[in-house]
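pasting input
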Amino acid sequence: MEKQMTSRSVKARAHRFAYDGLDRVIHERARLGLLTCLVAHPKGLSFGTLKQLCRLTDGNLSRHLQVLEAAKLVEISKSHVRNRPQTLCRITLQGRKRYVNYLAILEQVILDAAAGIGNDVESKSASALART
Amino acid sequence: MEKQMTSRSVKARAHRFAYDGLDRVIHERARLGLLTCLVAHPKGLSFGTLKQLCRLTDGNLSRHLQVLEAAKLVEISKSHVRNRPQTLCRITLQGRKRYVNYLAILEQVILDAAAGIGNDVESKSASALART
């Protein structure tokens, strides 16, 4: 048992920079922006507002929302507001959980990077971390 | 002039979740791991060590190193150690600078996310940030 644990620990150390937890569905740049935006607006946002906040074209936004909806990270509902059709996008509970797990890995990347950059190099990153 | 600045500020606010600074060459998951690993080892690493630390196959590592070399973020040199050929990979000065700029945007994503997640939700992310 002890041997197994040591072996696991060596393995984890050996793959220290693999960051397997960086879920590719979330990590893609446009989708990372979309999810961060939807996490910050838990009541949901209209297609138009989301498009503007994330600076995406209609086509790109539709495509990425389809991927996020298929992965059950986002739910999309259509309704009418003042007789005009409106598409509302919300992050799901599962989406929120997976996003939070993803963030923990992202923070590990930043901590590893900050350790790598060291104190001898003036870095925006290190000083930004120091302020948090 | 004042009008122009206001207009710029409104524009920046409007595209608040676009994160254009997340350079796609660096952001791809495997390459993010590779660069974080190379930043932490500024003297360079052999192909074999890099492959192990980032848990990549020979083919994947070669392909991503080619992209990073073409973008001048990484330099690759071949030599012989004890009569055996060795490939050494190092992050360039330009690579280091671009990586640090990239990190600053990544930290902004985390700060925006932490603000969005709020205090009412128990989150690994928020507690990890609090510890830094």
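fyi The two ends of chain B are 40 Å apart (CA to CA).
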